[in-house]
Amino acid sequence: MKIRSITVFCQPGFPVNRLMLQQVGIFADHARKLYQENGFEVQSLRLATPPFEQFIAPVDLPLAAQSYAIEAHADGFEYISLGPVSTNTKAWEVIPQALAKSDRIFLSGNLTTPEGTISLPAARACAETIVRLSTLEKDGFANLRFCALANVPANTPFFPAAYAQPGRASFALALEAADLAPQAFSQARTFQEASELLIKAIEENAKKLEEIGNRLSKMYTYEFKGLDFTLAPYPSDAISIGRALESLGIEAFGKPGSLLASAFLTNTLDQARFTRTGFNGLMLPVLEDSGLARSASDGNLSVRDLLLFSSVCGAGLDVIPLPGDTTAEELTPILLDLAALSLRLNKALTARLMPIPGKKAGEMTEFDFAFFANSRILPVNSTPLLGKFSGNEEIKISPRKTE
After folding, report:
1. Which terminus of the chain faces fewer neighbouring Cβ atoms within 10 Å, N or C?
2. Where are the beta strands (DSSP E) in 31-76?
3. pLDDT of 314 over the 80 cut
4. What is the domain count for the chain?
């Protein structure tokens, strides 16, 4: 298990408050050293601000992105999230310009409102943004730094979804803990044993991580928001969620039985005791997981399958390779379905979709990138929406009543 990110939440404003950045940079560097001294590898230090529209005029976003990329990096932060654009704004239009300024900058966009509505215009704007970003960098990589948000709260440490609340600086840990699942499952004879072993592994690590986090909080008076134990994988079979779920007895992830396996794993996560923030679910990023990439290549996974699994698990649709000629009109229904699922089930979901320029459905990706496993391009199987979906309404979707 590794710490993927120590994510610091603060509001340095724009122009950037240099003193604040220096202070949180000193904190983050100290936090990295403390965790590493206690046996936890720290992959990155990241900074997340409140939603940028609260302190940056949309027209100034590209300049602000460039400034943050330089100044925050000078204080030790590898990546910076400037938060999500709101649903009813024209700020969507400047997102590609801002992300073009630096590969250290991350942004996101809201499909839903705090009042529990889905914005039809926001879904269309988000889809158009994804299409524009797909040609911004080679192999569609700019979409790695952008995602659609549905019902996602502040203080989520995973990027691109991370954003801060106004107020004093705070911090949280995003964990790369997918290896805990195969280790636990390989020792178990039954589902009950598998659950107990995984809970034990999570709680043992969480206790150490929280002790250090609370020490840091007292030293710097920055609130420790907690841990996101979403089982983030790496493109190696030893750290593959797909392979871990298959080890429970599924021939290939994506085939019948996969939904139960996913629900079992997230139910186990729910039982573990630790200070929670963020998703704390099951992440199924096709290109970042060797087992999932293999299942998609073999035809066992589709976009609809992954959306179905999101109903019982984690972060939504993540790094999904799509045809390069995918249109905004084809992406919009997928984003709306994701948003509906998030509100109806009252859970946070995201979509990070990657149209790959020049690629068609069924073709293999050709990435030369250490954090990706190559897979087949998944067909979109979507058609443009008509009728009432063409309007500019915000559609109210309430959580399911249980009484």
Report:
1. C
2. 45-48
3. no
4. 1
Tens digit of each residue's pLDDT (9 = 90 or more) over 96-132 = 999 999 999 999 999 999 999 999 999 999 999 999 9
Q: Determine the 3-state secondary structure of 308 from DSSP.
A: helix
Q: What's the rounded Cα separation, in Å, for the pair 256 and 37?
A: 44
Closest CA to 114 of 47, 51, 174, 49: 51
Q: Which pTM does this prediction carry? A: 0.96
Mapped onto helix, strand or coil, the DSSP state of residue 18 is: helix
Residue 18's contacts (CB-CB under 8 Å, 6 or more residues apart) are 71
Tokens of 362: 């069924």
Question: What is the arrangement of strands in the sheet containing 105-110, beginning at the earlier edge strand?
Answer: 223-228, 170-176, 2-9, 45-48, 79-85, 105-110, 146-150, 349-356, 316-323
| CATH code of the domain covering residue 23 | 3.20.70.20
pLDDT band at 90 (very low <50, low <70, confident <90, very high): confident
Contact of 101 with 67, CB cutoff 8 Å: no
Enclosing domain of residue 343: 1-403
Taking alpha carbons only, the member of 179, 178, 173, 159 closest to residue 211 is: 173
369 — pLDDT class (breaks 50, 70, 90): confident
| Assigned token pair, 174 | 């995003």
pLDDT of amino acid 395: 97
User: What is the SS3 assignment for 90-151?
Assistant: CHHHHHHHHHCCCCCEEEEEECECCCCEEEHHHHHHHHHHHHHHCCCCHHHHHHHHEEEEEC
| Strands (DSSP E) found in 277-371 | 316-323, 349-356
What is the torsional sign of CA 13, 14, 15, 18?
A: positive
